[in-house]
Amino acid sequence: MNKGDLIERVAEHTGETKAGAARMVEAVLDCIVTGVQRDEKVAITGFGTFKKKTRKARIGINPVTKQPMEIKASTTVGFSPSETLRNGV
Question: What is the pTM of this model?
Answer without folding.
Answer: 0.77
